[in-house]
Amino acid sequence: MKLKNNGIQILPIPKIEDPRGNLSVIENDIVPFDIKRVYYLYDVPSGSERGGHAHKELQEFLVALSGSFDVVLNDGEDERIVTLNKPYEGLLINPGIWRELQNFSSGSVCLVVASDVYIEEDYIRNFDEFLKYSNYKQKN
């Protein structure tokens, strides 16, 4: 199955190489939205999953700062798995995409850059409700 390209995209993050250690910077010219919130997931126990929701308006940019994890993406019709494991690439997730994060490696850190502050009403936390929302949105 192929997920529609308008829902997700891998974006490069500039990497400044230096023998003392590399540096990458995420600014508003990297992501297509104004950055309003930044948070990160870490110490995720083996076998645990995060996410399990979609957003109506929010855009997110996920980066594996350390280690790796899989992002399972679903647009209501198709599903795709993207493995993130490079700190100089990020996954842009547009609104209306269900996401689940799983298979976290030991010591992995997931950085999330978001287009807005936390707004509970923007979340769709039930997959059946997401499918209804997705179907409605595709018809209109």
UniProtKB/TrEMBL annotation:
Top-level division of the source organism's lineage: Bacteria
Domain Sugar 3,4-ketoisomerase QdtA cupin: 8-134
The keyword DNA-binding belongs to this UniProt entry's keyword annotation: no
Transmembrane segments: none
Pfam families attached to this UniProt entry: FdtA
Record's keyword terms, sorted: Isomerase
This enzyme's EC code(s): 5.3.2.3
Top EC group: isomerase
Signal peptide: none
UniProt-recorded name of the protein: TDP-4-oxo-6-deoxy-alpha-D-glucose-3, 4-oxoisomerase
Origin species: Flavobacterium bizetiae
